[in-house]
Write a structure and sequence with these properties.
The complex is a heterodimer of chains A (about 475) and B (about 350). Chain A is an alpha/beta fold and about 475 residues long. Chain A has a single domain, classed as Spore Coat Polysaccharide Biosynthesis Protein SpsA, Chain A, CATH 3.90.550. In chain A, a hairpin with a 5-residue loop joins β4 and β5. The longest helix of chain A has about 40 residues. Chain B has a domain of about 90 residues. The chains are: A alpha/beta (about 475), B mainly alpha (about 350). The interface between A and B is large, with 58 and 60 residues.
Chain lengths: ~475, ~350
């Protein structure tokens, strides 16, 4: 029994050390990528890009389902984007709240018939509205069909060669699209997809109302930890994936795609819990299978702030969904696992997801049980156990501090005192935040095994402006 | 086991705790330094620093980091308008590295002197830099470089002719004859750029050339021709543009709708026959344009029994009718409220 326990503990600690070693390597590669992108951005002539007719136009698509509290701020920020030519298409996906009424009131919508391409089959479109105030705003009102269906309806209406899918609860910086399209404009033949770094807040409008450099991070540690989680995911990991050629998650809150690529792939898939990660996997699979040159990139620029859950229940609901969709996608694309035909995506990217995301909840359960038993059976002294926890906590804290450093060097968004608070919160992440994520991932994995594909949308926070 | 775990934990803690402290100091120290620099503004380099910048700007770095230092030096010297700037930018422009060439293009655009414009035009003729980047800078320098674009229209390279035609578009007094000739160019991209540029030039020759391209075999030429014909030939071109509402390509149909909407109610006589077209796209398109130019609302409010309105509803389908009825109901309410 003791020997078995010792083996289990060894396996779990080995997994932990190995995965953290991989995270350290990724953070170093992410730092290099961050430096390169920062230099590029500093040398970029944004004024010319923002006024040139050669800047490629973009259709921004917002899928909205019961987003009455957030939708007006989101659309306002999208209409205010500093970009030479863009249209905003809001798809009201059969909301049962006042989403459509709020939009109609704020933007003076008028119903118009619009004959569009029906490239993608979607649920029935009930009406199309145009704004009297903003000629580049269209609202499509349709029967509920899920986010992927709503995005496909937006794609049918989109007029431009590039589309940018965004979430309806996110408020964007004015230069978001310009920064996102910068690399596309440089190499439109090769760059087919771009995503960028987003931050999180309980009330995005309030956070974004301050200029960059003076923005605050939510006072509640619960939201601050989610902010740190985003920083680590984007700046330590996705930047490195981007540099290594296997950027496998173009986030739904800000994803630029070349429209013809989406047409070729049949649009967003409705058969998954969530559409973003699956689409990114599909793009890689398709292009690598056909041996075509392409790039899907992640940028370090902070382009906007999205709403983070403000209660544990909402957070668990969100994260269990994320875990489910990762499990669904990695399982669906199992033909890519360790398959050299898919180059770095098959050899490193998908296996990385498999080991660090799909299998992680199982290893975490094993670790909790085996370490707990070891402590009870006296395999470890309490002092060794405490030392081990401290080591893990500071290992995580170092990775978090690295992400904070990369973000601040890139964006200079937050006040110094808020950065200091984040740094101090970092070592406690293991004890205050990770257990919630552990539970959510476990729940998500269980639901995946049961074949549950429900969305379980969490209730929106109360916003200062919209309330 | 206990011993091993203890040792590993000590080693990990011994590495990670100082690392966390170090990174935290780097975050806060770096930020304080940045804030201080923001307060005092950019410093002027002294003589030795300028020499170092010159060396870097003309150097051939072997690392990516070195390349960025070179680009930074080029930018700083150009901003200072250092006497060696033309020499530095000339070399940077023809550098094999696209990043360095890109920096040179931006600096030349920012300077905007005649020599800088000539260098940019020369870069447009060459094939070593991103032509769209060069074009974006030249476009920004309007109206200075206009006459330098004329020779580009006769260049043997179709890519250069394309950019010449694209860039000369806002210069209404320049190059009309050349542009008309380019509408017969063998390269469809050049024809498209030429017809787009002619859209800015009202005149008989331009009108004839644009209308002729409505029948071009290349669909993207027809797109630009439709838009340009609406602007240049006006109502005279409306019947020809209206025929394009039934084009096989969605982009062409959309361009035709945009052009006809641009003509306003004057396009109505050309659209009415299309309402009975055997082609569904053409019928839908005509009804949509009539809706967008306000005719549907006008008829629904003033002459609800009009046979023309019935024909538009038939061509546009029930949703067009529902939308019109919702709009007109609202308009009637507003009128009644005003009257009351």
């Amino acid at each position: 029994m003791t020997n078995l326990l010792a083996i289990l503990v060894g396996v779990c600690l080995g997994y932990l050390l190995l995965s953290n070693a991989v995270y350290v390597v990724l953070a170093l590669i992410g730092a290099v990528e961050n430096g390169v992108r920062r230099h590029e951005s500093e040398a970029e002539d944004y004024d010319t890009l923002a006024s040139s007719r050669f800047t490629i136009p973009v259709s921004v698509i917002v899928a909205a389902y019961n987003e009455a509290s957030a939708i007006v701020s989101t659309v306002t920020s999208l209409l205010d984007l500093d970009y030479p030519e863009h249209e905003v298409i809001v798809v009201n996906d059969g909301s049962s709240d006042e989403t459509l009424e709020r939009l109609a009131e704020a933007f003076e919508l008028e119903p118009f018939e619009l004959f569009v391409r029906r490239v993608f089959h979607t649920e029935e479109v009930r009406a199309v509205y145009r704004s009297e105030k903003h000629p580049n705003l269209f609202v499509v009102d349709k029967q509920n069909g899920g986010k992927a269906d709503a995005l496909n309806a937006g794609l049918n209406v989109a007029r431009y060669r590039y589309v940018c899918g965004v979430d309806a609860d996110t408020v964007f910086d004015r230069d978001a699209l310009l920064k996102g399209m910068r690399l596309v404009i440089q190499d439109p033949g090769r760059v087919i997809g771009v995503t960028s770094h987003l931050t999180i807040a309980e009330d995005p409008e309030r956070t974004m109302s301050a200029p960059k450099g003076k923005r605050r991070i939510d006072r509640r540690p619960f939201v601050a930890y989610q902010h740190l989680d985003y920083l680590r995911a984007f700046l330590n990991n996705r930047l490195a994936w981007s540099r290594l050629g296997f950027m496998l998650c173009s986030v739904g809150a800000f994803q630029i795609w070349r429209r013809d690529v989406l047409e070729e792939l049949g649009g967003y898939a409705r058969g998954f819990t969530c559409e973003d990660i699956e689409l990114t996997f599909r793009v890689h699979e398709h292009f690598l299978r056909e041996g075509r040159e392409y790039s899907v990139l992640c940028l370090p620029d902070n382009v906007g702030t999205t709403e983070g859950p403000d209660t544990v229940r909402k957070l668990v609901s969100q994260r269990e969904r994320w875990q489910r969709v990762i499990d669904e996608t990695v399982w669906h694309y199992r033909n890519m696992w360790f398959n050299p035909r898919f180059r770095s995506v098959g050899i490193v990217g998908v296996p990385f997801y498999l080991v660090t995301e799909v299998l992680a909840p199982a290893v975490e359960v094993l670790a909790v049980v085996s370490l707990g038993l070891s402590l009870v059976l006296g395999l470890f002294s309490p002092a060794t156990f405490a030392l081990m926890l401290a080591a893990i906590a500071f290992m995580n804290a170092s990775l978090t501090a690295c992400a904070i450093l990369l973000d601040d060097v890139q964006s200079r968004t937050y006040r110094t005192r808020d950065l200091a608070r984040l740094l101090l919160l970092a070592p406690l992440d293991l004890f205050l935040y990770r257990p919630i994520i552990f539970w959510a991932r476990l729940k998500g994995s269980w639901r995946f095994l049961r074949g549950d594909k429900e969305w379980h949308k969490f209730e929106r926070n109360v916003r200062s402006q919209a309330a | 086991m206990h011993e091993l775990v203890f040792r590993v934990a000590v080693v990990v803690l011994a590495v990670s705790l100082p690392l966390w402290i170090l990174l935290s100091v780097a975050v806060l120290g770096g930020r304080a330094r940045y804030d201080r620099r923001q307060r005092i503004g950019p410093l002027k380099p002294n003589g030795r620093q300028v020499d170092r910048l010159l060396k870097r700007a003309l150097g051939r770095p072997r690392t990516e980091w070195g390349e960025w230092r070179r680009i930074s030096a080029i930018n700083r010297l150009a901003r200072m308008r250092h006497p060696a700037t033309p020499h530095i930018l000339y070399h940077a422009l023809w550098d094999g590295d696209p990043k360095v060439a890109g920096a040179a293009i931006r600096c030349l655009g920012a300077l905007g002197d005649l020599w800088a414009i000539e260098l940019l035009v020369a870069a447009l003729r060459g094939d070593r830099v991103s032509r769209s980047r060069v074009a974006a800078q030249l476009e920004r320098l309007y109206p200075e470089p206009g006459f330098l674009f004329l020779p580009l229209l006769r260049d043997p390279d179709p890519a250069v002719r394309f950019w010449g035609a694209t860039l000369i578009a806002p210069y209404e007094a320049l190059g009309e004859i050349d542009l008309v000739n380019l509408t017969r160019d063998e390269d469809p991209n050049v024809r498209a750029a030429a017809v787009e540029a002619l859209g800015h030039r009202p005149g008989e020759h331009a009108a004839e050339a644009t209308v002729a391209l409505l029948e071009d075999p290349a669909w993207f030429v027809r797109v630009h021709a439709a838009r340009a014909a609406g602007q240049v030939a006006g109502v005279d071109a409306a019947p020809a543009i209206a025929r394009m509402l039934g084009d096989e390509r969605w982009w062409v149909r959309t361009a035709a709708k945009d052009a006809l909407e641009g003509l306003g109610r004057a396009a109505v006589p050309a659209l009415v026959p299309v309402l009975s077209s055997p082609d569904g796209f053409a019928r839908n398109g005509a009804a949509e344009v009539l809706q967008d130019v306000g005719l549907v609302d006008h008829l629904a409010l003033e002459e609800p029994q009009s046979p023309l309105l019935a024909r538009i509803y038939e061509a546009g389908g029930p949703k067009l009718r529902e939308a019109a009825e919702e709009r007109t109901a609202r308009e009637r309410r507003i009128r009644e409220e005003k009257a009351a």
